[in-house]
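Backbone-to-sequence.
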């Protein structure tokens, strides 16, 4: 009996996960209704958001390897995959953190986990478009490169539009207020980047000072 209940519960979680993952496609084409239901009607899950983010990063990495050399020419000796992944995840983390911090001060309704979840759901057009585009790149000619570039840009613009729409719905902001906080969030990301660069610069200088100090002591001994 206990095993049967556990199996039923596990099956229910799987069904909810798959349903919330499919709901990302609805958010792509119906951003206002979709992102409202995502949080207010609990149609989304963190598990599905993590999956979308993972697939987006994976597609981004696969593009380096399998996109035609006509469009991407990668020098693998100078490419650090971990830094490349960080260059994707760090801006996303900064966006989520800055947006949540700023909107919380001005009556934003979205929680931190909701901002993260909605942002990840808004990335759905990227893997949906870029994955087949990556394959298509190996069959197009140089003369058709403009088509490839245009579709690639559309996927990025679509993601940006969905992110802005998502923030407006989960925070329950008007269009003007949502655009204002989008700009404020981007500015906050610049400030955070400057602070992080200053912090790591100070840390590196401090470490270099102590290393040179230890070397000097060892030399004199």
């Amino acid at each position: 009996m206990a095993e049967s209940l556990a199996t039923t519960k596990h099956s229910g979680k799987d069904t909810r996960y798959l349903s919330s993952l499919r709901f990302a496609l609805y958010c792509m084409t119906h951003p206002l209704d979709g992102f409202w239901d995502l949080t207010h009607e609990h149609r989304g899950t963190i598990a599905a958001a993590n999956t979308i983010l993972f697939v987006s990063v994976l597609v981004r990495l696969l593009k380096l390897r399998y996109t035609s050399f006509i469009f991407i020419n990668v020098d693998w000796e100078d490419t650090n995959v971990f830094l490349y992944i960080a260059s994707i995840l760090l801006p996303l983390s900064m966006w989520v953190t800055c947006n949540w911090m700023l909107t919380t001060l001005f009556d934003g309704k979205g929680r931190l986990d909701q901002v993260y979840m909605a942002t990840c759901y808004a990335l759905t057009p990227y893997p949906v478009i870029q994955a087949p585009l990556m394959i298509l790149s190996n069959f197009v000619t140089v003369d058709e490169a403009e088509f490839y570039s245009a579709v690639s840009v559309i996927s990025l613009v679509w993601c940006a539009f969905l992110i802005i729409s998502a923030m407006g719905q989960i925070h329950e902001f008007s269009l003007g207020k949502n655009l204002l906080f989008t700009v404020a969030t981007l500015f906050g990301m610049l400030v955070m980047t400057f602070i992080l660069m200053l912090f790591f610069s100070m840390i590196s200088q401090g470490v270099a000072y102590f290393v040179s100090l230890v070397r000097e002591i060892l030399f004199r001994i």
